[in-house]
Specification:
The complex is a heterodimer of chains A (about 140) and B (about 230). Chain A is an all-alpha fold and about 140 residues long. Helices cover about 65% and strands about 0% of the residues of chain A. With about 230 residues, chain B is an alpha+beta fold. Helix content of chain B is about 30%, strand content about 20%. Classes of the chains: A mainly alpha (about 140), B alpha+beta (about 230). The interface of A and B includes residues 98 and 113 of A.
Chain lengths: ~140, ~230
């Protein structure tokens, strides 16, 4: 839900669009062997995106290079699809080139925010079986 | 006028005549050259083959009145102190622990008389005699260890503010120097804080490796820091 909001309202701001794109890239690269179980995965993620952006002048070229550098077959997502259709997607490339650290830090903050929101929701709505979180109110057997 | 002459104008005179190896002045009250064999920056010398150094340069290469607080109690050379010399005023000196004072010297420029500042970082390099001397109320230049920094005090103040704000949120001096801040440094910040730090990150990235940036990073301090060390260096 939040993702859609970000993409819809961010047409004017390249930073928000870049964050949405980086979030898509992040989800698409969760299985990347390069990033898995690495302490410095966020730094690798940021520097690879930045170096890809520095050597690309179009958004499509950026995606191709990011996929190669992060060792994944393909990249997909709503924000990526939206930027591929957009005519001003070079702004995103420029933003990722200049501010990759801030963009990735915002992606990280966004993920953390979602995680906390989900934890809060689970805590307030414990499920009957396996899905719900066990809270302190759960009576002991 | 050399920095050494400005700072040590009342140095004890010698008896040798010749050209000062360091500043190139022709003197009649020189000393035998006191340059150590470890000194390799021969290109800085005005007269490398001369066996004479003038009395101010000799004093600049010599020992300060301070002694080591350790058991050895050996005298500490002037090379271990940052120096602030002004024409007609006594020489001021400060150790690295007194960074706020050095910062005051640097940001207080320009001065109404001839002045010069030499900042010692490692305390191992004999660079004081080669520090620049500034004309009254003119351009500002100083020597930061081996780097000559020309700066505008107002611009330096603005850049210092940027650097200190990043330093305050946990970015290390090593990262500030290179302008490459790791993502992990920003993990404790909320999204609005990261957005607020964007222009700072951009400014540091654009200015990295410039002498004025090196000076700003050197001078930067956290608010609760008492000036004795940088913590992460």
């Amino acid at each position: 839900m939040k993702m859609e909001t970000t993409t819809e309202t961010s047409r004017a701001d390249p930073l928000d669009r870049s964050v949405a794109v980086a979030l898509d890239i992040h989800y698409a690269t969760l299985d990347s062997k390069l990033l898995r179980n690495r302490m410095d995965r966020w730094d690798i993620f940021a520097t690879r995106i930045q170096s890809a952006a520095e050597s690309s002048d179009t958004f499509a070229a950026l995606l191709e290079r990011v996929a190669r550098k992060l060792e994944v077959g393909s990249l997909s997502g709503d924000a990526i699809a939206s930027e591929l259709r957009a005519t001003d997607s070079r702004e995103v490339v420029r933003c990722l080139r200049a501010e990759s650290v801030a963009v990735v830090a915002l992606v990280r903050a966004d993920i953390q925010e979602r995680r906390e929101a989900r934890a809060a929701r689970d805590a307030s709505n414990p499920g009957p079986l396996f899905g719900g979180a066990v809270t302190e109110e759960t009576p002991d057997a | 006028m050399s920095f050494a002459r400005l700072a040590f104008h009342d140095a004890k005179p010698g008896a040798l005549s010749g050209t000062c190896a360091l500043c190139g002045a022709t003197v009649t009250d020189g000393h035998p050259t006191a340059i150590s064999d470890n000194f390799v920056e021969v290109d800085l010398l005005a007269s490398p083959r001369s066996a004479v150094t003038c009395s101010p340069c000799t004093a600049a290469l010599g020992n300060s009145p301070h002694v080591s607080p350790r058991a050895s109690a050996r005298p500490l050379g002037w090379r271990m102190f940052s120096l602030f010399a002004r024409d007609g005023l006594p020489l001021e000196h400060a150790s690295k622990a007194e960074k706020p004072r050095i910062r005051g010297w640097v940001l207080g420029a320009p001065y109404p008389e001839r002045w010069g500042i030499h900042i010692a970082d490692s305390g191992k390099k004999q660079r004081a005699p080669f520090a620049p001397v500034n004309a009254p109320s003119g351009r500002c230049a100083l020597q930061l260890e081996t780097v000559r920094v020309e700066y505008e005090p107002a611009a330096l103040r603005v850049h210092l503010d940027v650097v200190e704000r990043l330093y305050a949120i946990g970015v290390s001096k090593a990262e500030l120097e290179t302008g490459t801040v790791s993502v992990g440094r920003l993990r404790k910040l909320s999204a609005p804080e990261i957005r607020a730090a964007r222009p700072l990150l951009h400014a540091v990235r654009c200015q990295s490796y410039t002498p004025i940036h090196a000076l700003a990073v050197w001078l930067a301090q956290r608010e609760n820091e008492d000036g004795d060390d940088d913590g992460d260096e």
